[in-house]
Fold Glycosyltransferase.
Amino acid sequence: MAIVGVQKQSVVLVPYPYQGHITPMLQLGTILHSNGFSVVVAHTKFNSPDPSNHPEFTFLPLEDNLSGFDTSYYNTLAVVAAINENCKVPFQDSLVQLMKDEEKNGQVRCVIHDPIMTFGRSAANHLQIPSLVLCTYNAVYMQTYHTILQLQAENCFPLQESRMLEPVPDIHALRFKDLGIPADIEIPQPVLEFFANVSNLGSSVAIIWNTNQELDHIALSQLQRHYEVPFFPIGPFNKMAPPSSTSFLEEERNCMEWLDKQDPNSVLYISLGSLASIEKKELEETAWGLANSGQPFLWVIRPSSVNGSEWIEQLPKGFQEAVGERGCIVKWSPQKEVLAHSAVGGFLTHCGWNSTLESLCEAVPMICRPCFADQLTNARYLTHVWNVGLELENVTDRVAIEKTIKKLMVDNEGNEMRKRVLEMKQKLETSIQKGGSSYRSLNELTEFILSFPR
Ligand code: UDX
């Protein structure tokens, strides 16, 4: 039976199909759904989300023609180009169909797309539907795109090694090193084009951020001068959205029972997210650093994340005997629950933005081992702005790893960080409660979407 007089309002989400991007997009969907919107997720068949985790959403698989394509992380730019090329027409056709079927799906108010998924904006623009960008990383990282493009325009690349520790103009607390462009190299043209595309808003009418005024106000206000569209910093999504699994890999829940047996704040949790990989040498040195630290640890080693092996075959001989029940190794964990567990007292992380937010929201201080992209800027902020993380200075030196673990887990320096990160957690909680900055921003976003002419 149709409900007369009450028209459903729907938003169409277009995620970039990798774990660290699809998770915040689905969390945003959940947040908007709780605010009364119908949610449609238009997604590639490659790395498709599992619809059974979100029975409240409508899922629209798009033909991406990626079967047989090299979709490894090293081929990212080609994957992005192929998705943007191949999905535009199928998405446009799906939008037309959605609009024809409005009684069932609700009135399509807008498309919300990942900045990398520019086909979402093109198709929306073609059909005169407003589009908004969801920035799944923070504003500081978006600033680095602008700075790199500006430096390129001024012929500043290649950067000299001697400049790497100098401050970057206009970005609070960053050094050239934190931009992630190594010394003495020219930036390849396709990479520059990627930065330009992702930082160009085109016809999109607003930016939604999975960040927060507490964390990012300087960069947000600087960027607001550049982009003359409304900003809606409504994060951290992981705390605003009710928990639901968005994992591509199966979560090994038995590690929760192991955690139940450990003392409060005693366990170091280790994970490098869904994409980063390491060399055998780092695996070995991390293993001995952990063994020699004497701390209990829960270590996520993703299949194929150690170069040259399927899983943990390259762990050093004698390591498992040395640590016994003190260590637990899994392929993939229920990370948000792990970080919320009272036994977890520290997180050795690659500083992906989701992991960073999840750790801050559970008041877990960090050891920072960034690998690429925004992980470098996040690590810099964790260690030098918010002072809730220690830098891991040498990832292939077991003594340095052991010392850093002890500093965080046992020494006074770690205790001071634990106090500071607890204050940050409280501020983040306040920001999403009634009257807080993210709470207000979310209300403004809802009004903004509803203000679009029908
Ligand atoms: C990618 C980029 O690498 C990252 O820098 C960017 O900020 C987002 O996109 P990823 O490397 O996967 O993401 O890191 P992160 O952003 O931390 O996201 C990983 C997600 O996987 C987190 O939500 C985390 O909770 C989840 N996870 C990780 C698990 O659920 N279980 C695990 O065992 C490991």
Observations:
- The pocket of uridine-5'-diphosphate-xylopyranose is lined by residues 19-21, 23, 137, 247, 271, 273-276, 300, 332-333, 335-336, 352-355, 358, 373-375 (CB under 6 Å).
- The chain is about 45% helix and 15% strand.
